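Q: How would the structure tokens look for this protein?
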Amino acid sequence: MTIEGYFYTFASAVGGLFLPKVSRMLATGSYAELEGLFIKIGRIQLFILCAILIPFTTMGKEFINLWVGNDFEHAYAVALLLMVPGLILFTQQIAYTMLQAQNKLKYQAIVLLCAAPINIILSIALCRLFGAVGASTGICISLLLYNCIMNFLFFKKIGLNIPRFFCQCHLKLFPSFFLVLVIGFMLGRFFHAGSLLAFIPKVSFLVVFYILTIWLSTMNRYEKKLILSFVKKKKD
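A: Here is the predicted structure in token form.
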């Protein structure tokens, strides 16, 4: 829960900041600009999420063993199952902000009311068979179903080009993420850390490799300018 909580905190930090801008764009009918903003913010969110998820996916089991011991090894699978649906959910914060700005939150409420019983039924059934991993699997399945239905509503009720969003956001970034995943799994397999102190340099190397990879092969001019302006502001 702690790990998933950090994941949620980083992911949700950006979304609410854009409500005034989205409202202005809707009022002026700037739907093309809104779709561009949807993709821009989605990509930035995905960069942030994968900076957490990729190291945890490749080295999370080792980290948990070092942190709380082998008895809690199953917590790795639990955390991973809770985090993975966020790659869709948290990259679409602008779409949810558009729902709010257009006063169409009833659609989200209806989907949540339908997803909640499915979540409960699946979690209870799978929990009896597989314990905590089963319960988190039920949550993961219901969240993925929720994401699918909400994307259909974004496409039909708001008019967002969802296929274009996934193409520009997730598919274009996938090769870089996959390369970092491979390097992470190799580090996890061949370089075992005996303590948290020894683990820190290993995960730090992967994070630095991740940043360099996306900077050199994936980020566009707007994203690089945004990061440089943020770094400059921090220095000032």
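The radius of gyration is 19 Å.

The mean pLDDT is 85.

Upvote if useful.
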